[in-house]
Amino acid sequence: MGRLDGKVIVLSAAAQGIGRAAAIAFAKEGAQVTATDINAEKLKELDGTPGIKTRVLDVTNKEQVEALAKEFERVDVLFNVAGFVHHGSILDCEEKDWDFTMNLNVRSMYLMIRAFLPKMLANKSGNIINMSSVASSIKGVVNRCVYSTSKAAVIGLTKSVASDFLEQGIRCNCICPGTVDTPSLRDRIQARPDPEQAFKDFMARQRTGRLCTAEEVAHLCVYLASDESAFVTGTEQVIDGGWSL
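Above: the chain sequence. Below: its structure as tokens.
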């Protein structure tokens, strides 16, 4: 018996990093997982994984999101993972950077929740998990202006949904990681003018002396997706190795 036996789970950004680790962890615990991502080639790596079916999806495209939602009679868990990290202060953030980040990091969650929540309400049961960050309203972080703003908005969205639909059987929580060792992080480090120094800067703020792993975040995802967390809603689940202390 798995901790998620029989649960139908849909998640975004499943091609790599936290999304991929969560999709695999969900399936191992018995869930029926639909793993989506805009990156078709990377997503193919999950094909053939027991319990997982893949779908290419642009979560910023309303028509695609609504079309996917129509395919499901029931969804127990919706996990919104897709996001983008912009580097820089407000003076480094052009309008196009602001718009792109808000569209992907916040509006996509609005679209996904709007599309899937009615199915949850019809079944009087549902569980939404949103990916936020410690870099948000939790902690001010240098050179994370629009990213932190977007992730603070995710916390607000999470609490709003949790409050509005609590008595109709809906739970909504968000996960707030610190620095997680993912392909996205490694790509951002390599994109800096001095990758070696950029890595040292990331490590300097790790009070545990190491980065978090995607699998460690996935363990928290499984808990929030399971009935073990049935009394947990409207929360920010911090997993940062003490960075925000």
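The first strand starts at residue 8 and ends at 11.
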